[in-house]
Amino acid sequence: MLRISNDDAQAFTVLFNLYKDKVYTIAFKLTGSAFKSEEAVQDIFMKLWIKRKELPEVDHFTAWFYTITRNHLFSLIKRKAARENREIIFANKMPSICNNTDEKLLLEETEELLKKALYLLPPQQNKVYRLIKECGMKKEEVAIELKLSTETVKVHLAKAMKNIRNYCLAHMNNPLIWIPLFFF
Prior knowledge:
By secondary structure, the chain is an all-alpha fold. 78% of the residues lie in helices and 0% in strands.
């Protein structure tokens, strides 16, 4: 600890290698995310480096270090909960765009517009679009099914989606149809 407090990077590396896996495991159990766990390890050891001058005064390093780790991870969890709470409050405060009758009419209008757009697609784009979007097939599966390369399938899908959007934008009567168009 004395060597680390005197800015010895090699001693810090030894300490890091000794504790990093334990910190990662605890972080992963709490967050369920490899990325957040790795980020937590970096943040915690950064805090340790920043507080390195205090290390000679620490009687029980392991307890002190796990307290820093625990506090950091609890802060992460609190921030996540607060963010999720804000999102829920925001969603609940959003006014309903339509009543059920309006929603049904909007859905019917959108479906009719989509049917017309699909009818006008070139046959290959139509097949690719339907297999991926309606049947839930992966691009690789469609490529095998239609005896095309995966890149060709991607191009057909991109063109199909562009054509559908363009058709719908040119023929829509209700601006609320824009909302579902962004999910194609």
